[in-house]
């Protein structure tokens, strides 16, 4: 839990309001003009108290703005740890990502994503927590924290998904106890009992083969040349949270990500975005516009889609939005799967610069 503690007023900060108050009291009881009832005296008295009141308001406003700037700095630091920037390249994949929060002034909300290069391949998670904005931040942190460990530890995506499911259940139980200590997670009517998270797990191995497990999340789009098509149309599993996972989980084979091809992962806030007339945003149309001129980079795809989305919603999305674009730039690795003599393969799973924003 992140706690932000407000600073106690200092003696220096209280000097100016105290002085203004003393001036007002001294004028009221010590100045002969304040005791007179003629029009001129009343005007002067009103002007004195108006000046004192205005000074106090300005002082309080400045103090509140200072506190607000401090809180925003702390919030940005916390958000960058939870939803950390992705490196521009991961094991031969070019990466670009962006996230828009429905809460004004927030840079993270209920959407989550992460991409990590592991010994099993590049593993990616894209998810969407029920609700949006800063209220969903705790669940996002629980899911992402579990994924960052399980992606390296588990040999199969089924094991990764099982770890995410257990981490989410633990988080919801603890949250229920904190919000309703008397009944905790045993209360079926508690709002926490209705929480769920849609999750897409994707693995891209060294040869470009893709496998995935999907729990209620939209399937990505595959960009191949100027073609835009869904990665697969297989029905997903139910979201994590309300229902237990099947006892037998098998990752779905999603084919090959050939050199030059790209994947576009997104949350449902993208396709659910509406304009002033209630029309939904067409992500395939925006992607076709992005790939019309070849070659195209993930940064350009991301920039084109975000620009079209903000134009469609007049800059005010009503739900959290996340986009992640991965392009296979492994031309040399495709021709030489084992790598050239003396060629080192670097796995980069740490934080890096955010591309495409």
What keywords describe this structure?
11 strands; alpha+beta; 357 residues; single chain; 9 helices; 6-stranded antiparallel β-sheet; disordered N terminus
Q: Termini, distance in Å?
A: 28 Å
Our Rg estimate from Cα atoms comes to: 28 Å
The fraction of residues in strands falls at 15-25%
Number of strands: 11
**Which quaternary structure do these chains form?**
single chain
Low-confidence stretches: 1-9, 332-357
Gross geometry: elongated
Which strand order does the major sheet show? Answer: 1-2-11-10-7-8
Profile the largest sheet. Answer: 6 strands, antiparallel
Class by SSE composition: alpha+beta
Question: Helix and strand string, N-terminal first?
Answer: HHHEEEEHHEEEEEEHHHEH
Topology summary:
Elements: H1 11-30, H2 32-35, H3 39-82, E1 89-90, E2 93-100, E3 111-118, E4 121-129, H4 137-153, H5 157-179, E5 197-204, E6 209-215, E7 221-224, E8 227-230, E9 252-256, E10 262-266, H6 268-271, H7 283-290, H8 298-312, E11 321-328, H9 331-335
Antiparallel strand pairs: 1-2, 2-11, 3-4, 4-5, 5-6, 6-9, 7-8, 7-10, 10-11
Helix pairs in contact: 1-3, 4-5, 7-8
Can you characterise this structure?
The chain has helices at 11-30, 32-35, 39-82, 137-153, 157-179, 268-271, 283-290, 298-312, 331-335; strands at 89-90, 93-100, 111-118, 121-129, 197-204, 209-215, 221-224, 227-230, 252-256, 262-266, 321-328. Residues 1-9 and 332-357 have low confidence and may be disordered. With 357 residues, the protein is α+β, with helices and mostly antiparallel strands. It is 39% helix and 19% strand. A hairpin with a 2-residue loop joins strand 3 and strand 4. 34% of the residues are buried. Strands 1-2-11-10-7-8 form a 6-stranded antiparallel sheet. A 5-stranded antiparallel sheet has the order 3-4-5-6-9, with helices on one face.
